[in-house]
């Protein structure tokens, strides 16, 4: 047998590596991921990417986009009824709609995860009492609950963020509570508990990896709901106030110009639709990749 022979051990991919391979094989998911990265870059660098100020009059009133015969190359998406550059307002408005939606979704997920895990791993009165409270709160649509909170506290950016945060927390709690409670009673968890495993070990090594799909699904849904609720409250005049360039507020301020200057309505609407679509594509791709990796 040659002394210089080389033996190559076959490496078995981990669950995360298999999930990433499955995700990369999904062309729609990869397209959504690249678009999501683009949105994140735009949101973070909006102040530097915007060619003009979002609230300053820099051009003629209702100037068409640059591809129109009456448009100008300096105003790629045209101007609104006050002569403000729409491209700049869309870029800076991404922070108020998409950026705030990410912030609210992550904040609500942290609280929802903590309470849902504690409730799911507990038994008796506490779990039952929380279950009844969640049934009551979830019977109210999130947008309606946000409108009630904003109507009580008054319009404004801080108030809509708090309202949507409060509306999203019960959804996370219910989803995590149901998933954890279903895992706790399974045989592998009971066997690990009989072997002396404590709750933290069970949670970190057994339960959380198996409910990761649920968490990602709820996170995706929460970001989409937050985007739509922020835009809806802005459209109704309860969210970001003029002259802030929040996408929903831009849509509401320009709705009367839909026939005279349709680009002032279409572009903010497309921005909202695009952001929700991208988030859902990435979320569905992650869910399918993790499910395939587990199988």
UniProtKB/TrEMBL annotation:
<feature type="transmembrane region" description="Helical">
    <location>
        <begin position="222"/>
        <end position="240"/>
    </location>
</feature>
<keyword id="KW-0472">Membrane</keyword>
<dbReference type="GO" id="GO:0005886">
    <property type="term" value="C:plasma membrane"/>
</dbReference>
<feature type="domain" description="ABC transmembrane type-1">
    <location>
        <begin position="98"/>
        <end position="283"/>
    </location>
</feature>
<protein>
    <submittedName>
        <fullName>Peptide ABC transporter permease SapC</fullName>
    </submittedName>
</protein>
<feature type="transmembrane region" description="Helical">
    <location>
        <begin position="28"/>
        <end position="50"/>
    </location>
</feature>
<dbReference type="InterPro" id="IPR025966">
    <property type="entry name" value="OppC_N"/>
</dbReference>
<dbReference type="Pfam" id="PF00528">
    <property type="entry name" value="BPD_transp_1"/>
</dbReference>
<feature type="transmembrane region" description="Helical">
    <location>
        <begin position="159"/>
        <end position="177"/>
    </location>
</feature>
<dbReference type="InterPro" id="IPR000515">
    <property type="entry name" value="MetI-like"/>
</dbReference>
<dbReference type="InterPro" id="IPR050366">
    <property type="entry name" value="BP-dependent_transpt_permease"/>
</dbReference>
<dbReference type="InterPro" id="IPR035906">
    <property type="entry name" value="MetI-like_sf"/>
</dbReference>
<dbReference type="GO" id="GO:0055085">
    <property type="term" value="P:transmembrane transport"/>
</dbReference>
<dbReference type="Pfam" id="PF12911">
    <property type="entry name" value="OppC_N"/>
</dbReference>
<keyword id="KW-0997">Cell inner membrane</keyword>
<feature type="transmembrane region" description="Helical">
    <location>
        <begin position="98"/>
        <end position="121"/>
    </location>
</feature>
<keyword id="KW-1133">Transmembrane helix</keyword>
<feature type="transmembrane region" description="Helical">
    <location>
        <begin position="133"/>
        <end position="153"/>
    </location>
</feature>
<comment type="similarity">
    <text>Belongs to the binding-protein-dependent transport system permease family. OppBC subfamily.</text>
</comment>
<keyword id="KW-0813">Transport</keyword>
<keyword id="KW-0812">Transmembrane</keyword>
<feature type="transmembrane region" description="Helical">
    <location>
        <begin position="260"/>
        <end position="282"/>
    </location>
</feature>
<keyword id="KW-1003">Cell membrane</keyword>
